[in-house]
Amino acid sequence: MGSILRATIKTKIALGFAIVLVALAGVAVKTTFALLDASALYQDYREVARVSSAIGEMRARMYGVRVAAESYVLSGDASHVERYDERLADAVTALEHAREIAVDPSLTAIIAGLGEKPAAYARAFEAARRETGETPAYLALLEAGRDAGRTIEEAGRRLDAKRDEIGPRIEATISSAATLAIWATAGAVLFGVVVAFLLGRSITGPLGAITAAMKRISDGDLDTAIPGRERADEIGAMSAALEVFRGALHRNREMEAQARDRDARAQEEKRRAMRTLADEFEAKVGGLARSVGAAATEMEATARAMTASAEETNGRSAAVASAAGQTSSNVQAVATATEELAASAGEIGVQVGETASRSRHAVDEARATNASVQDLSQAAQRIGDVVDMISQIASQTNLLALNATIEAARAGEAGKGFAVVAAEVKTLADQTAKATDEISGQIARVQETTGRAVTAIGGIMATIEDMNRIATAVASAVEEQQAATKEIARNVNEAARGTEHVTGNIGGVREAATATGAASGQVLSAANELAQTASQLDEAVSAFVHGIRAA
């Protein structure tokens, strides 16, 4: 009994079903034998009934034989002889049929007693046919008929008695088999219910206790007791696996506490480093602000120099105005030559315009190339994101795989039930496969974008070739300008002698104007940039120092 209680759940269930099946098999065997007995009795009853029916047919035919024979003897009518012959043949046929049916020796004995009665009656009838009237032969015929009737009646009574004997036996056998089947089936069902109840109670009770322990562990109570560890069945294996799982949770909780301590220390060290950095930054930026103040002072001096240079420019401009009158006549000749130059320049302008159009087309192609490159860059960025996700999944998968290996090694055979970790590893492996598919898709997009970039670059190359052809046409137009340029040069020489004085003055004016413009631009640019930089620097320093100290 103790070994049964220590057996596995599978063995208990199999044993319970085996006992029920053996009981049902016994019931089936007993019922089958009872039914076979009933079937044999039924065959006997059927045989008796068929023989009785044949004997009844013979009795009816013999009665007809007696009526026909006696009528013939009394009346001498030959038609009675024909009926006699027919009825006698039917009676003999019925007797032969009964003899063929009978198998049981008692039935064969009954039929054997009837075998000579038709023949004896036939002999008596032949004797009576030779004499008419109520002669001794006729009386012998009557006696033979009565004897045959008595014998047939006796055989019928014996058959009825045998049939009455077999009928109750059949009923008793069937009733006994039915009663046995009912009670045995009810007992087997009751036993099965008891076995099922006992098995259910032996399984559901410990399972309920383990389920409650699992619930308490999932709620964070890792010190709860785990029942059933001493059992040798599947419930004991579940308890051992739950114990291993609880140990893993204990270790994970300790590792999480250690990680939180490390994070807290790292955050504190980071805050100290940031405060030190803020102090150093504030000191350096203070020196930079002083340098900006010095630069502003230098800009004021530059502005004063620009004012003086502007006054000198005004004086020299008056001298240039008086000398410019001498150059007007030579300028007329220059204008004539310039007209010819303008004609050629017009053609050059047309070519240059087409060149500009082609250049714009090249710019559009370049923009398309740039857009393709941007798409390529974005696809690469997405690939980087997917790779990061794969890295994270791989890290977590490795950690879970390590935990599963350690726990399975510690649990031994019980580690087979530690399916939680294995399921998690499978889930993470599926995610890794999905991430790999995403990488393949992104790589395909990068390849497609690269193809578009190559096509756009090909268009740019074709445009550049068109611009080269246009540049050749521009060169030929320039050659036409050479003749006009020579004429312009001659007139310019004449004008140059009259404008030497103007050139001297203009040179001074140009230098002064250039110095003034450069100084003015530098002052304005420096002033604007200095103001913006000072403002941005002040805001950035304040925000940075505040953020660092608040961190």
Automatic annotation (TrEMBL):
Belongs to the methyl-accepting chemotaxis (MCP) protein family. Transmembrane segments: none annotated. Keywords: Coiled coil, Transducer. GO terms for molecular function: transmembrane signaling receptor activity. It holds the Pfam family HAMP. One of its GO terms (cellular component) is membrane. One of its GO terms (biological process) is chemotaxis. This is Methyl-accepting chemotaxis protein. Residues 295-531 form the Methyl-accepting transducer domain. It comes from Salinarimonas ramus. Residues 252-284 form a coiled coil. The keyword Coiled coil applies. SMART domains: HAMP (SM00304), MA (SM00283). It comes from the Bacteria.
